[in-house]
């Protein structure tokens, strides 16, 4: 039997999974899947300091998971593909159903 994907796929995916292992980054991505948002808005929604939010956004942007749009002095963040947060919903639903 052959593995469904090349080894490189698993290595690259594991890098993204490590990035997604942060609850804050998962929350940011789930917020961004619904609406383009600024750092100030994310700071208020997450209840954490702006430098911390900016650091998480930088990691997500560097990984290619989010993009930015500048308008005046504000920078707005948007998710590249909302499909990236589907596992979060799946795991949530499994926990609610007491399966995991």
Q: What's the order of the H and E elements?
A: HHEHHEEH
- End-to-end span in angstroms? 29 Å
The fraction of residues in strands falls at 5-15%
Tally the beta strands. 3
CATH architectural name: Orthogonal Bundle
> Strand sequence of the main sheet, in spatial order?
1-3-2
Rg measurement, Å: 15 Å
Would you kindly provide a written description of the structure presented here, covering whatever features stand out?
With 100 residues, the chain is an alpha+beta fold. It has one domain (9-96): Arc Repressor Mutant, subunit A, CATH 1.10.10.10. The protein is 55% helix and 14% strand. It is built from five helices and three strands, in the order ααβααββα. The protein is globular.
List the helices and strands and how they pair.
Blueprint: H1 7-19, H2 23-32, E1 37-38, H3 39-46, H4 50-62, E2 66-71, E3 74-79, H5 86-96
Antiparallel strand pairs: 1-3, 2-3
A few lines on this structure:
By secondary structure, the chain is α+β, with helices and mostly antiparallel strands. The chain has helices spanning about 5-20, 25-30, 40-45, 50-60, 85-95, and strands at about 35-40, 65-70, 75-80.
What key attributes describe this structure?
single chain, 100 residues, alpha+beta, Arc Repressor Mutant, subunit A, 3-stranded antiparallel sheet, 5 helices, 14% strand, globular
